[in-house]
Every structure is written in structure tokens, then in C-alpha cells.
Amino acid sequence: MAEAGAKRSKKTVAVGKMYRIIDPSATIASHLDGKSVEERIEECGRICYKTEDKITGMSAIGFGRKMVVDMHNSVLEMAVVTYHVLAMGDVRKLREVSKYVVIDEYEEGYLITGSIRAFREAYMLCPQDTLIKGLVHAVAKRHPIFFEDMVLGGDNRMEQLIEKVELNMLDGEIRASSPKLWRRHRFVAVKFIVNRAVTHELVRHRPCAFLQESQRYCNYGQDRFDRLVTFIKPLFFPKGTPEYSEWLRSVRFSAKQYLKLLETSSPQAARTVLINSCKTEIIVFCNIVQWNHILHMRTSPAAEPSMREVMIPLQAQMRELFSGESFDKRSPEGFLVSKEEAEVEA
Ligand SMILES: Cc1cc2nc3c(=O)[nH]c(=O)nc-3n(C[C@H](O)[C@H](O)[C@H](O)COP(=O)(O)OP(=O)(O)OC[C@H]3O[C@@H](n4cnc5c(N)ncnc54)[C@H](O)[C@@H]3O)c2cc1C
């Protein structure tokens, strides 16, 4: 029996090829750093629906507003902004209400980095706090569409004391003077195209923000997916071996059953027959400290081989983009101050 509420599709099951097989990959999404907050939120958010083709020069504002109205809050985690607060003050409330805002002492004040979501929620929880109010005013001034549902009030005593820190300053002056600060405040997005077993492991890294292709929203029986289900080539079974043939048999059966179920059921019901090899796109967004931790754990010989298959090349990409950084430090052990460093600092 069809799932309750599912729409009956008029399409028939595809005859002939029902699947495609592709290689996995992991790519640093550096191009997002050159985009506006609104544009990067749209580009990341659309991965869930696979509607990147709908991006136009004008679509980011409408998309961002919709995410706020629909309370699709995890999409608002995909862009962070950094501020320099030019005075020492009370950061206790901000620390208390958000563990997702990075706060460090910096040049007689503070360096503060957070996502649109983190600032929105800090203000919802504590609108009276002078620092939180000042920061949210600063973010809302540049990115008003994300704060249209909030009453911010006119009184902003912090305005003169809050300066936006641009990315080139973070990567230049701040990295040069304090690599430790830079590692905490510099966030990097990576797009993975991997199988569903690998995404399941990736999302265990709790301090990160994630957005992934949704098997609930995406209907691979539609023309825009060429009516094909995509699978990731298995690392374990080389083409031409009996094991590869067995694997391919499962792929064919899984795709066939999925497309058949779509005739009477929704994608969320039909997806229950998709195997772990099914292709999934996922964006992982976190700071350099976390990338060190993830790459240390996931390139180790103990890690799952399909994970290592994408993480080892990613580690090389990271080292090339941010030269001098090992991307092999487990957190927090890898960041422990050595006895020698401690003596120098003392
Ligand atoms: C080789 C290997 C084998 C694995 N085997 C299994 C397995 O059999 N079963 C299984 O369930 N998982 C397994 N995992 C997943 C593993 O247990 C972790 O969930 C995953 O690697 C995320 O790493 P993490 O816990 O170090 O930290 P992350 O989630 O990446 O967190 C980073 C940091 O945040 C802090 N943190 C986050 N949340 C908390 C919290 N609630 N309390 C305290 N500190 C916190 C910690 O300081 C931590 O160092 C395996 C992973 C690997 C690499």
C-alpha cells in the first residue's frame, strides 16, 4: 500500500539504464569566500534540494528570507562573520548563551566570530545584553534580511566599538601575529560527493555545520536527475572482479525498486530501498582547529578506507591552500602547549 499522503506519479518506471556510477571527491569550496553572506547561504542551502540551477543574480535574498521564515536554521550556519570589539567588556552572557560563538581576547578587546544563526539565537535568548545587542546590530546592518523577524531597538551604545574583520585581515595580519587565534576564527567549507555511509560518519563531527542532499526532497525519478539514481564507485571492489559484479547487482536492484516505488510513493518512502553506496553531496563547514582534528582522525590507517580515499587528497589540498599548517593535529591534544612553548610564553 502506498504511504499515506503520497502523490501518485504519472510517470512510468524508466526502461533501460536506471543508475549511474561516479567517483567520490572532496573539494575546498574556496569560491564561497568571495561571495556575499547571502549568496553563500543560498549556494550551500540549495544542495539539500539540488536546485543550484535556480541560482540567479537576484535569487539569494529571496532564498535567505525563506530560510528564516521556514526556520530552516541550519542553513544560516553556513556563513560566519568576524568582529573586533575595541574594548574590554563583559562577554559572560555571550559565552553563556552560545557555545557556537568563538570569543578570544585580542588587542585590548575581543575577536568574535559566529554564524548568522548563532548571532540570531544569542539575541533571542538575551536581547538586553549590551554586547550581544551591539553585535547583532552590526550584523543586521549589513545583512538585514536575516533579522527582519526581530525587533532590534534603536539604542546601540556599542556602534563605535565594533569593527568588521574582513577575511584578508584574518588570513594576513591576524594569522601572522597569532596562528592560534586564526585557527579558531578562520572557517572553511568543503564539499564532499561521497556515499551515504561516509556522510553518516562525517556528521559525527559535532562542532561542524552540515548541509546535505536530501533523499526526502530529491526525487531521482524526475527528468532533472535524468531519472537515474547515482552511486559511488566502491573502493573495496575493483571493476572486473566477482565482488564488483555482486555489488553491481545490488545497485541495479536498489535503483529498480526505488523507481518502482516512486510510482505510488513519495521519495522519502522509496529511499528506504537505496543502498549505502548511494551518492550524497554534503557541505562541511568548520574552523581550522576542527579541520586539523577531522583530517587527523580520518586519514589515519584506522579510519574507514572510503573515508581515507577522500580525506587524504583533501589534506593535501588544505596544506596547499594554507601552507605551513599541518592539518594533522587532533583536538585538543594536538594543540597542547609544549613545555618549551610554555617556558617561552612565561
Ligand atoms: C577509526 C574510527 C573508528 C570509529 N568507530 C566508531 C564506532 O565503532 N562507533 C561509533 O559510534 N563511532 C565510531 N567512530 C566515531 C567517533 O567515535 C567520533 O564520534 C567521531 O570520530 C567524531 O570525533 P570526536 O568525538 O573526536 O569529536 P567531534 O564530534 O569532532 O568533536 C570535536 C571536539 O568537540 C568536543 N565535544 C563535542 N561534543 C562534546 C560533548 N558532548 N562532550 C564533550 N566534548 C565534546 C570535544 O572536545 C571534541 O574533541 C569512529 C571514528 C574513527 C575515526
In short:
By secondary structure, the protein is an alpha+beta fold. 40% of the residues lie in helices and 16% in strands. Helix 1 crosses helix 2, helix 4 packs across helix 5 and helix 6 packs antiparallel against helix 7.
Can you describe this structure?
This protein has 346 residues and is α+β, with helices and mostly antiparallel strands. It folds into 2 domains: 19-25 and 187-321, Gyrase A, domain 2, CATH 3.30.1360; 79-185, no CATH class. It has helices spanning 37-49, 59-69, 92-97, 116-125, 130-142, 167-177, 179-185, 196-202, 242-261, 267-270, 288-299, 305-321, 339-345, and strands at residues 19-22, 25-28, 80-85, 102-106, 109-115, 162-165, 187-195, 209-212, 229-232, 279-287. A 4-stranded antiparallel β-sheet has the order 2-7-10-8, sandwiched between helices. Strands 4-5-3-6 form a 4-stranded antiparallel β-sheet, sandwiched between helices. A two-stranded parallel sheet has the order 1-9. The protein is globular and about 65 Å long. Mean pLDDT is 92; it is low at 1-15.
Task: Write the SSE topology.
Layout (H helix, E strand, L loop, with lengths): L18 E4 L2 E4 L8 H13 L9 H11 L10 E6 L6 H6 L4 E5 L2 E7 H10 L4 H13 L19 E4 L1 H11 L1 H7 L1 E9 H7 L6 E4 L16 E4 L9 H20 L5 H4 L8 E9 H12 L5 H17 L17 H7 L1
Parallel strand pairs: 1-9
Antiparallel strand pairs: 2-7, 3-5, 3-6, 4-5, 7-10, 8-10
Bound molecules: flavin-adenine dinucleotide.
